[in-house]
DNA sequence: ATAGGTGCAAACGTTTTGCATTAAA
DNA sequence: TTTAATGCAAAACGTTTGCACCTAT
């Protein structure tokens, strides 16, 4: 609970007003010991069920996008109907379990860093994401 | 134009009936000299504008998904509102230009193959995708 | 004749928007 | 008190679905 003043400080530093809603979202996202992956829907459910709070969807979207812009969250590239976010903003990659739609972190020790020998004129590399899709061994792949 | 009989054959081999609509889609996707990237929207526009044909959206979706299932198309993972497909089904990776929302192929010579030292029990690797996001050098990232 | 495919419109789920209200500075 | 943030409902958008009709076999 005492984290709240830290979040307040951080938000103010970032030029974001520390509102009640944003502080709640910070608690959910940044208090857990471990980083985690979530969709907006997941997050809204956590806020509603675990915190018995109700934050407007628009506000959740606003806040998540603001946090992403500030680099407090990472969006993960998957071709899915929804967007996945990660509270782990360090450089790392992912497994995506097609059976369960779950993301699994892949630490840097578990994957060699990608060596890119091409560059695009006038463009700068913003991110390199490796996505390893996995599924049950015995799955009918048609 | 003489490709049509080839497409008919291929479709029949795959257990897909060679309908007028599917043959049109084959023409658009597989006749060009070069492989390319597209969204469903792109494809529908090409069919409407270049071929002056009208194929129902549901049919386009059906066909693209059928082709993907058969391995004639690849879906590319990007966190975008829409799905991107690739007529190049060989193993290769992509640059994604955030300024223009364009995909650029990255050949295997341009990127070292990714070495994964982790595996997930009971799961098999289905694909490994590297996505390199690029944007203008001078772009305001805020 | 009979699967399988098509087309339309409606439904769906996620995300965005407009605008009046509220709260932080 | 003024600027930013919230909440709500509506709209937008890509995608999927249900079902009657059509067409390849």
Average pLDDT for all residues of chain A: 91
Q: So, the CATH homologous superfamily of the largest domain in chain A?
A: Winged helix-like DNA-binding domain superfamily/Winged helix DNA-binding domain
Q: Residue share in helices of chain A?
A: 25-40%
CATH first level of the largest domain in chain A? Mainly Alpha
Topology, number of strands of chain A: 6
What fold name goes in the CATH topology slot of the largest domain in chain A? Arc Repressor Mutant, subunit A
Low-confidence stretches of chain A: none
Major sheet of chain A, described briefly? Answer: 3 strands, antiparallel
Based on the structure given, which CATH architecture of the largest domain in chain A is correct? Answer: Orthogonal Bundle
- Number of helical regions of chain A: 4
The Cα radius of gyration of chain A reads 17 Å
Largest interface: A-B, 43 and 44 residues
Number of domains of chain A: 2
Secondary-structure element order of chain A, N to C: HHEHHEEEEE
Shape of chain A: globular
Alpha-beta content class of chain A: alpha+beta
Largest sheet: spatial strand order of chain A: 1-3-2
Assembly state: homodimer
- The end-to-end span of chain A amounts to 51 Å
What is the strand content of chain A? 15-25%
Family (chains A, B): Belongs to the Fur family.
Subunit structure (chains A, B): Homodimer.
InterPro entries (chains A, B): FUR, WH-like_DNA-bd_sf, WH_DNA-bd_sf
Protein name (chains A, B): Ferric uptake regulation protein
